[in-house]
Write a structure and sequence with these properties.
Elements (H helix, E strand, L loop, with lengths): L8 E3 L24 E4 L2 E5 L14 E2 L20 E3 L2 E8 L20 E5 L12 E3 L21 H4 L4 E10 L1 H4 L2 E6 L2 E2 L1 E6 L2 E6 L6 E4 L7 E10 L12 E3 L2 E2 L3 E6 L2 E12 L5 E12 L8 E7 L2 E7 L7 E11 L12 E8 L5 E9 L4 E4 L2 E4 L6 E5 L13 H13 L4 E3 L7 H10 L2 E5 L12 H4 L5 H15 L5 E5 L8 H13 L5 E2 L10 E4 L3 H10 L5 E6 L10 H10 L3 E6 L7 E4 L17 E4 L29 H7 L3 E6 L2 E6 L9 E10 L2 E10 L11 E10 L15 E4 L3 E4 L3 E5 L5 E6 L2 E2 L1 E7 L7 H5 L2 H4 L11 E10 L2 E10 L3 E9 L5 E9 L9 E9 L4 E7 L14 E7 H4 L12 E11 L2 E16 L19 E10 L24 E10 L1
Parallel strand pairs: 28-29, 28-35, 29-30, 30-31, 31-32, 33-34, 34-35
Antiparallel strand pairs: 1-3, 2-3, 4-13, 5-18, 6-7, 6-9, 8-16, 9-15, 10-14, 10-18, 11-17, 12-13, 12-15, 19-20, 20-23, 21-22, 21-24, 24-25, 26-27, 36-37, 38-39, 40-41, 41-42, 43-44, 44-45, 45-46, 46-47, 48-53, 49-50, 50-51, 51-52, 52-59, 53-58, 54-55, 54-56, 56-57, 57-58, 57-59
Helix pairs in contact: 3-4, 6-7, 8-9
Length: 1021
């Protein structure tokens, strides 16, 4: 057998030792394409002849036009006479494998009349074809770049459906006028790779799925009906750079357009506004590329820039046939209105191309913002000011249309972000559709625009992709497409080279490419600071941010992902910002992430409903990884938003709004002090109001900062910032006798305390088993000590249940030492003493007056060392199911926890039980309310009230803790009871990440300390 030639094998090793050639005698023809063979430190890669463009990293596109800026503001596209939309219903055929695709379908005479119809834009998986796959880090196919069709394990989705293909056909008419011009076919986004034909003629090929692809199709057209055929591959070699943590969906998912352009037209432009040193002037320069696609030299053309009500014109040099020339215009703005997220001042402008007869042959409308973004040493500045980036990461996601997001949803997203005082958006981890950037320009949102580059499946900061020269151009292409398209948006302040990808020369080339556009551009990269203008860290704790930012001396610090918002999360959020505000070198941080990536799936397993509606129907549920039979998958790891898939804010959205608010309030000697936390925001920018409330001697004052005027994202009067001050403390009620005679006790096997309204029964273990009022027992299960709580997502991944496992059955397994009955001054006392199996003494004391009010006191004293943290300290009982109306005085109205209660004001709230609990997409601990002074559960004609002897934590559900171990809320076994937990305290939710970091110690319950609390139960009928 011959030794493989250099053309057949590529050596992938460094500093390898001499070897015996006989050991390496291989028959290259018998190697699978891309197969790697290792001999010690030597790795050999077979390089058979490449069969497919979509498995060849050297082929990024065929006949694609150069990338360019968005020429017309998306909101004004309908007014642009050059644009013809091809969106709508297309003929479609789905094939599970490339070999089964309808070969030759692109031919003009191929009959597609019996094919299905599919919506474009859209993903085919959300329209009933193939399988959505949710996976975080790993590739959904065998990892062996550049190949995507090798045999995976049999249980993988890709085993039977190796690389599905979508074949699309649509028709459009071409008029004589159209045929006399230059016709460009524009795809906004196609995943993952595509071939294009017009009238049976092959036009080209494209990958890099999150950026536009354009083809000149002029020569392929004829008058009348024309046929457009597109063949889309689910995976390609480009998929190795598109390994983002999201649903893996495919198809033509952004708009398709024809641009019918003059033969001489503006190919690209950039309008740059640069303020001078003291911001008293701004120099505006418009750079244009003008190309001649006609049959003769263009002469005597002019360009016109209209800005700030002024026209600036210039002559265009003569352009030879097929050439592209550059032209520029300049203008100075005096005393410019600066653009910032807080004050997004924009200057609308238009660019016109004027022919030699004085006619406007092309007209585009856009806007610019005057700003300067820079890193001055270790300080990040916008317009010379140390702005803090109060950020969030966001995936492009719609629960019905997948990767296609409509305009209304974009508007809702950005408005909700602004209402939560978010001023910084990272487009994780690819460029979004153009309209989002227009909204960020107009509404005011700093943007980190991210390139479509992630190879996490090879490892964070891998060298496989970053150092392989065969992949250099693929990396650079993604930086080029990013900057070229979005270079005119004032909202973009950072240009990200990608996420969790490679390191090495390929990333350096991306960095260099970004800087080549404009030396003032700030590239960002998370995998190594050498490629980034800012030092980055992912998922640090507040302590880590403080310590690590102090070590960085040459550039600002940013946490590009932090505060993992998965499920019931976002604890200790204020602690992060105490650190960030205290250090001028910390630029800010971006929450992971904005929206749950749930898909609306019918409960009966039927086809998803295609619609722009975000609303979940009664017969649907939010699906996540594995719910479509997708293998491999990462379960609910895609469910980590501040808002639900339908954009309903989660409870933790409100702590973000509070901590991110630009105005902070304090009270000194009864006077409210206002302070702006954003140097671009003035205290005087808002109207103010105060609300004073007195309940049980507790005096609270809420101060509010409100919008003075309507904005695109909220109306005048919207509360931007607020703070509640407790001026006088709450007077907790003192339990008292209601008669001189104490209730009598009947001693049976249990203890029955007879009251004026009925009785209270306490069993031989000291649990209250019955509360009878007028012949009705309101209890379904006893009131007993209960120390267990279900995990939330953060705790499940961090081994919480295992660490606190000794507490799960402590209440049930408590050992009674004694029960003592006594009475005094109209009150009957029953004291129960226990030992707890964790190594502690525990005492319950029931005080019962004549009308049946019950004071419950619990006292815990450790007797041994090294007792684990207590999940919660309190008691539990279950009431009959008709107690489904909740009224309380405490923090709300939304769910809150000890480490997430800022911004949840103390107040009087009323709601149905269904609204008191929170149906997280994956059921978990939920619904707690902190600092509850009193709570009432009521049914028709009967109510039970709990009054705390101190602030309480309370949860109430219509199911038991044991039933939470299901995948979805609709699978919960709703009981014929109300499950009520009455606690002194509960373990915090945590908030750094969802795979290991723990709740901060100050929000846990120490099992090695004593604890005492009390509450009073009273029932009225």
């Amino acid at each position: 057998m011959p030794v493989p030639s250099a053309d057949q094998l590529r050596w992938q090793t460094q500093n390898y030792a001499p070897f015996d050639a006989k050991v390496l005698r291989l028959d290259a023809d018998k190697l699978a394409s891309g197969e790697r063979i290792k001999f010690g430190d030597i790795e050999i890669l077979s390089e058979k002849k490449v069969e497919h463009d979509w498995e060849n990293p050297a082929v990024l596109g065929i006949n694609k036009l150069p990338y360019h800026s968005t020429l017309q503001l998306p909101s004004l596209e309908k007014e642009c006479k050059e644009i013809v939309s091809l969106d709508g219903q297309w003929h479609f055929c789905w094939s599970p494998n490339p070999n089964e695709r309808p070969k030759g379908f692109e031919a003009a005479d191929y009959d597609v009349s019996q094919w299905d119809k599919i919506a474009v834009p859209g993903n085919w998986q959300t329209q009933g074809y193939g399988t959505p796959i949710y996976i975080n880090i790993n590739y959904p196919f065998v990892r062996n770049r550049p190949y995507v069709t090798q045999e995976p394990p049999r249980d993988w989705t890709a085993y039977a459906r190796r690389n599905p293909v979508g074949s699309y056909v649509t028709f459009f008419n071409a008029t004589d006028e159209m045929l006399s011009q230059n016709v460009i076919l524009h795809f906004g986004g196609v995943k993952s790779a595509m071939y294009v034909w017009v009238n049976g003629k092959k036009v080209g090929y494209s990958q890099n799925s999150m950026s536009p692809a354009e083809f000149d199709i002029t020569k392929y057209l004829h008058k009348g009906e024309n046929r457009l055929a597109v063949e889309v591959y689910r995976w390609s070699d480009g998929s190795y750079l598109e390994d983002q943590d999201m649903w893996r969906l495919s198809g033509i998912f952004r708009s398709v357009q024809l641009w019918v352009r003059p033969l001489v037209h503006i190919a690209d432009y950039r309008v740059k506004a640069e303020p001078n040193a003291d911001y008293s002037k701004a120099s505006v320069t418009a750079y244009m590329k003008i190309c001649n696609m006609g049959g003769k030299t263009s002469k005597d053309m002019r360009i016109r820039l209209n800005i700030d009500g002024k026209n600036i014109e210039g002559r265009v040099k003569d352009i030879a046939i097929g050439d592209t020339i550059s032209a520029s215009l300049e203008y100075t703005i005096d005393n410019p209105r600066l653009w910032s997220a807080a004050k997004p001042n924009l200057y609308p402008f238009s660019i016109e191309l004027i022919d030699n007869k004085g006619n406007v042959s092309e007209h585009f409308d856009y806007h610019l913002g005057v700003k300067r973004v820079e890193c001055v040493g270790e300080v990040f500045k916008v317009n010379g000011k140390n702005v803090k980036l109060r950020g969030v990461n966001r995936h492009d996601h719609h629960p019905r249309t997948g990767r296609y997001v409509d305009d209304a949803t974009y508007e809702k997203d950005i408005a909700l972000m602004k209402q939560a005082n978010i001023n910084f958006l990272r487009t994780s981890h690819y460029p979004d559709r153009e309209y989002l950037y227009e909204l960020c320009d107009r509404y005011g949102m700093y943007v980190m625009d991210e390139a479509n580059q992630e190879s996490h499946g090879y490892g964070y900061a891998n060298k496989d992709m970053g150092e392989d020269p065969a992949w250099k151009e693929a990396h650079v292409d993604r930086a080029t497409s990013l900057v070229e398209r979005d270079k005119n948006h004032p909202c973009v302040i950072l240009w990200s080279l990608g996420n969790e990808g490679g390191i090495g020369p390929n990333i350096q080339a991306m960095y260099d490419k970004v800087k080549s556009f404009d030396s003032s551009f700030l590239p960002f990269y998370d995998c190594h600071p050498r490629y980034s203008s800012l030092y980055d860290e992912g998922y640090p704790t507040p302590k880590m941010i403080k310590e690590n930012a102090a070590k960085v001396k040459d550039k600002p610090y940013i946490a590009r992902e932090y505060a993992h918002a998965m499920g019931n999360s976002m604890g200790n959020f204020k602690e992060y910002w105490d650190v960030i505000y205290a250090d001028s070198s910390i630029a800010g941080a971006a929450i992971w992430d904005w929206v749950d990536q749930g898909l609306a799936k019918p409960k009966d397993g039927g086809k998803m409903r295609l619609s722009s509606s975000l609303e979940l129907m009664d017969d649907e549920f939010w699906a996540y990884g594995g719910d479509f039979g997708d293998r491999p998958n990462d379960g609910n790891f895609c469910i980590n938003g501040l808002v639900a898939s339908d954009r309903t804010p989660h409870p933790h959205y409100y702590v973000v709004k509070h901590v991110y608010q630009p105005i902070h309030f304090s009270m000194i000697d009864g006077k409210i002090i206002k302070k702006s936390m954003d140097p671009t925001v003035d205290v005087e920018d808002f109207d103010y109001a105060t609300d004073t409330t007195i309940v049980s001697n507790e005096k609270t004052i809420i101060v509010k900062a409100m919008l003075k005027d309507d904005t695109p994202w909220a109306k005048k009067g919207f509360v931007v910032a607020s703070e509640q001050f407790v001026v006088e403390p709450y007077s907790f009620p003192v339990f008292a006798a209601t008669s001189r005679k104490a209730p009598k006790v009947k001693k049976r096997e249990d203890y029955e305390v007879l009251t004026e309204k009925g009785s209270v029964v306490i069993d031989d273990k000291g649990a209250i088993t019955e509360i009878n009022v007028n012949g009705r027992n309101i209890l379904k299960t006893p009131l007993e000590p209960y120390f267990w709580k279900p995990e939330n997502d953060n705790q499940e991944k961090a081994g919480f249940a295992k660490r606190v496992a000794p507490w799960e059955k402590v209440g049930e397994n408590r050992q009674l030492k004694s029960i003592k009955v006594s009475s005094s001054k109209g009150i009957t006392f029953i004291k129960c003493a226990y030992t707890l199996p964790v190594g502690a003494d525990y005492e319950l004391c029931y005080s019962i007056n004549s009308v049946g009010d019950i004071k419950v006191e619990a006292d815990y004293r450790p007797t041994q060392a090294d007792i684990p943290l207590i999940p919660k300290f309190g008691m539990r009982m279950r009431l009959t199911s008709d107690f489904d109306k909740v009224e309380y005085y405490g923090r709300g109205p939304w769910e809150n926890y000890p480490d997430r209660k800022l911004g949840y004001d103390i107040g009087h709230y009323t709601m149905p039980l269904a609204d008191f609990q929170v149906d997280y997409v994956r059921p978990q601990d939920n619904g707690n309310r902190c600092d509850v002074r009193w709570l009432t559960l009521s049914s028709d004609g009967c109510s039970m009230r709990i009054d705390g002897g101190q602030p309480l934590c309370i949860r109430a559900w219509d199911y038991g803790e044991e039933n939470l171990n299901v995948r979805h809320p609709h699978e919960l076994k709703r009981g014929d009871f109300v499950n009520l937990n009455i606690d002194l305290n509960i373990h915090g939710v945590g908030g750094a990440d969802t795979w290991g970091k723990r709740t901060l110690p100050e929000y846990t319950i120490d099992g090695n300390q004593s604890h005492h609390y009390s509450f009073v139960i009273s029932v009225e009928q």
